[in-house]
Amino acid sequence: MTEKENVLTREFEIKGKDFSRAGNISSKIKEILQETGISNSIIRRAAIATYEAELNVVMYANKGILYFTLDPDSIRLKIDDEGRGIKDISLAMKEGYSTATEEYREMGFGAGMGLPNIKKNADKFKISSILGKGTSLEIFFFLNNSGAS
Amino acid sequence: MNHYLHFVRVDENKCMGRMKCMRVCPTQAIRVRGGKAKIDDEKCIDCGECITSCPSGAIYPLTDPFGELTRFRHTVAVPSPALYAQFGQKITPGKILNGLRKLGFDDAYDLALSCGEVSFALLEYLRENSETKPLIINTCPTVVRLIQVKYPSLINHITPIDIPREIAAREVKQRKSKQYGLEEKEIGAFYITPCPAKMISIKQPAEKEKSYLDGAISISDIYGPLLATMENIDNEESDESIDNLCILGLGWAMAGGISRTLKLKNSLTVSGLPEILKVFDDMERGSLQHIDFIEAYSCPQGCIGGSLTVENLYISYNKILRLIEELELKKIKRCPDAKEVRKKYSEGYFFKKHQLRPRPLKPLNDDLTKAIKKRKEIEKIYEKLPKIDCGACGSPTCEAFAEDVVKKESSLLDCVFMLPKKLRDLSKELSELLNKTKSINETGQNNNKSEAKGKKK
Lengths: 149, 457
Hints:
heterodimer; A: alpha+beta; Heat Shock Protein 90; 6 helices; B: alpha/beta; Alpha-Beta Plaits; Rossmann fold; 3-methyladenine DNA Glycosylase II, Chain A, domain 3; 3 domains
């Protein structure tokens, strides 16, 4: 019971193709982290990673859920989506590789930087995917070692 | 207790608790308690939105009275270029500066010239620092404070070049003290300001260094007297041509003006706080890295839209734009010498002496474990609330209210939706209690009766 008391969890739904709301979850999470006094550099990295993850669901999946967990040691983001999945993960992790449509690129999205950018900003990053089913991301930020800035 | 100075005040006699200010405040710094607006010093960024929105005229900026001038042996007016936009097309900047001299200042300095210098310096800085993209201009004190408070991670994107009004005041004091054999402190430099935020930036600069300016007088305070004075000035007496104006400097009066007059290729201009929040949110998420330079002004259309200006801001915009267009066509451009500026730049002439630091809001608790617990409490309370942000409790949103309750600054019963619920619960409890006592009494009476019967026997 006491263990749960200092763990904050939130769930956010993400709708596919809903570009107008992409970024809302990132803002919300930033707000929570600011209020709880997390350092600015971590907030910034978490905000960027959240936004990229949100965008990925909006662009490539039908829907998804982002689970946010904050405890005194870490921030954990888990994003599960229902969508087309990723065929070749190692390829998808390469900067500049993208399966985005011409339309998305016109709008400035789909530059093939999303996943690499998430990985770059995270302290720990896991990805798994089933083709035709969906993709699951797990993103961690550790609060103790990379602490103050 | 409070270490932040603010120049926005609430007149409690006039305040009717109408909550307009509470709703427009971009940092949610205002609460209405006991029917009166209260401003939280930690959160206030001196944008002046509350001043403009108050229907009762109860919120006002503290500006310096003219009387301040007598403290100095020699006084110089340093008007914001936005002042040039306040009068009709026929009243030139030259005439306005002359009017200020007649009004009681010993001299008036054309700030557009310093603005021009800083424009060149900015160009140098942009060239040298292309890796920190985009850079944000620091001329609007509200924007600088907004970043300090709400976007601390963007702080290294703010340009460290000093603002023209400070450079002008520094220069004027040095020059005048030589010219008249006076000490620098005997010379008073007064900024004629379009907004209250610049007043604060003079009294308490964001970097906590001292300002070279000695005070600020609002455009709206000086407008009437200045107009009357100018009516008595012969046209021949003052410089009626605009050839002496620095086109780069004029750009500082309006949103987009710096980029336009410097011919910057890849900049973004945003004005008005709600729009700025959107742009900075995007920037924080890393999606503006392809932009070089951001001009952000808290007032709509830039400084000409300041809350202490008089003229309709769109007409002002038109006047500045026309001046710029006219000068663009002319061959003669009286602007600072770019070579000289570059030399001064390399000597560090333009740089601020102190570094800008973030001013993040206090977390719910310094201990993360406790802060998380409090945040959970807030969310628990928030879930019970109607989530319609009616504001009747005196907090701007249901979420802010939940936070105020956890911080013990409000009581849950301040919510008009919680009170009836509480009453309903209480009355239910009460009626249940009544029923209980009734049935106890009834059984008691029966017992008594049977006892009585027993006695009779």
